[in-house]
Amino acid sequence: MSTDLNFRMTDLEENLSSDDGAAFKAKVLDRLVASGGIVAKKMDAGLPSEDFKNAQLLHQALAAAHEVVSTFPVQEPEQIKS
To answer: Which of 21, 49, 61, 69 is a Cys-bridge partner for 74, taking CB atoms 3.0 to 4.6 Å apart?
Structure first.
């Protein structure tokens, strides 16, 4: 039985934990912000009631994902070289 506590559950977590984690994190956060902006624009432009509710949920999910990813600790490039 393995006692390796460095187990990663998802590809996202694996990529964030890699040596390139800081760059990957920045890309993911940029995509989440861009996607949130697109959803917000569609909501502002007006959507049918059911679509608007779904867009609100999507916008909230993107914001929650941004919060989770932004708090994930990554090694900065200068930390890797040490």
So the answer is: 21
CA 10 vs. chain centroid, Å, equals 12
pTM of the model: 0.80
Distance CA 54, CA 51 (A): 5
Q: First CA to last CA across the chain, in angstroms?
A: 32
pLDDT digits (tens, 9 = 90+) for 5-33: 566 678 898 999 899 999 999 999 999 99
For 17-69, the DSSP string reads TSTTHHHHHHHHHHHHHHHHHHHHHHHHH---HHHHHHHHHHHHHHHHHHHHH
**What would the pLDDT profile of 51-67 be if each residue is shown by its tens digit?**
999 999 999 999 999 99
